[in-house]
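Annotated sample (chain length 153).
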Amino acid sequence: MCAGMRDGSVDGSGFARPCLPLVAFVMAGTFRLDKWLWAARFYKTRSAAADAIDGGKVQVNGSRVKRGRPLQIGDRIRIRKVPYESIIEVVQLSEHRGSAMDAAGLYRETADSIAARKVLAEQHRVAAAISKPTKGRPTKRDRRRISRLKGTD
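Output written by the structure step:
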């Protein structure tokens, strides 16, 4: 289906002009979600980004989407990478993976998301400090002590 007239012209003059499909007009200025997530360095590979999208770990504007969904400036993306969750807003579009500084300019993280990540990181830090590191498998001497303690000599 064309955006112009039936004869291929835009103004109906009858002259043959190239007829662009409607998809070209709809897709102008948008990019695939999986490519953008890869370019913004949320995932190392496009296939990892696609797997996360297919697995429901990525939502756009509050709904589950497919990997080829056109992304637009202003979209809100929720990315869940266990145990963290990021809510970001798309600021720029790019299909090309650049440096980390370039990638950071493609999005803006919400203040609530940053605060939640900081709280969770602090909880993980405190939990790691409290837990005792394990030595691994008991030695022969330790096994003998354990058996004496249990009374199974």
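Annotation: The CA atoms of residues 91 and 107 lie 5 Å apart.
Annotation: DSSP finds six helices and seven strands in the chain.
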